[in-house]
Each structure stands twice: as C-alpha cells, then as structure tokens.
Amino acid sequence: MANARVVFFDFDGPVCDVFAGLPAPEVAKQLTSLLSSQDEAAGAKAAETDDPIEVLRIAHEAGAAIGREVEQALTAAEVEAVAVAGPPTPGAVEALRAARSSGREVLVVSNNSAECVQRFLEIHGLGGHVAEIVGRPVGQPHLMKPNPFPIITAAEQARVGVEDCTLIGDSLTDVQAAHTAGATVIAYANKPHKAALFAEAGADAITDAMQAIADAFTTA
User: Fold this and answer.
1) What is the enclosing helix (H) or strand (E) of 210?
2) Which of 11, 22, 25, 80 could make an S-S bridge to 110, C-beta 3.0–4.6 Å?
3) What predicted TM-score, i.e. pTM, was given to this entire model?
C-alpha cells in the first residue's frame, strides 16, 4: 500500500452488500424470465445460475438487442437493491476516509452499474470520498473483470500508471484483473474459504476486515 498513489475499491463486498435486501437469486430469476421470453435456449442456460451478472453475459451472447434489454433491467434492479441494502460494509467508510486522508485518490471499480454505485454513495453521504466511478462497461460485458479493462480505464482516469494503483477486491476476478493489468491487489476475504483461494491466486495481501485496511492507510 505504501507505493500506491491511487486506490481502487471494488463495490459489491468491500463497500456494499449490493443484494442484501433484494436477493441476487431473485434478480437473476427475473432477468432469466425476461431472457426466456425472447430466447428459450439462452433462458434455459441462464436458469442454471443464480448470479445476475452471469445472466447478463448469457443475454449478450444471445444477441445485442436482448442483451441491452436485460442489462437495462439489471441496472434498474441494482439501483433498487442498493436502496434497501442497508449500511456500508463494516469498516468500509473508515477505509474510504483513511485512503482520502492519506492523500491518495479513490475510485470505485465495479462490475455493477455506475448508476447503482452512485446511488449508494449518495444515500450514505460518501460521494465526497470517491473521485470517479468506473462501472460495468455498457453493452460490453466481456470487458468486465477479470478482464483488465476496468483497471486500465480507472488508471487512465486517475492519470497515473497502473503500477501505482492498488485494488481492494473480494473475488478472484479482482485478483486476476489487477495482476493482468499490472496493479497490486489487496484481497478482502469476507468469507472464510476465500483466504486460501486468494493466497493460491497470488494476492499481494489478504485481510478479513475492511477496518484493517483503514488502519493500514494511517501508517502506509
């Protein structure tokens, strides 16, 4: 963290439990129903997952038009979900504040829509801590993490080299995207089994508490 000039926060996990109030499987089911109404085969494939992001990928594979329709529905569901998601992840507010207080620029880099990130930050008065939001590339789900595109885009927006950036994320796709891009990554193991997976994936640091990240910013 000491060499990081800019800090990227993944959204779902490190900052917010997006679907805490509106369960992800329910959203995935709604999106699958929409997809099935226009492409039965794609709908059958989507019915095998309860991850709304995966349903989106399948929809775009089925065609641009249905992909856009499903993406619009997902974005609307995400905005609805963050309004009932409850408070930020424990320690997240402290981590955002500490990162800014340390003189670093903060961006949110997420596979969720920029609209839902913006809405959550507004609800909880956190917008002042975040310089930019790099959300899901509209109409281009293949560019979502683990693709390095969002990390590279965020570094460009911050006008720094990727090597000067650190991503805080809670998934293997975060680790993969950051390392492919050339950034360092702090893996947030918010579930016990994740720590071993992150270690195997080569995360630069691993923690099970966002508060620990906040504390580290005061000394880095």
Assistant:
1) helix 210-217
2) 11
3) 0.95
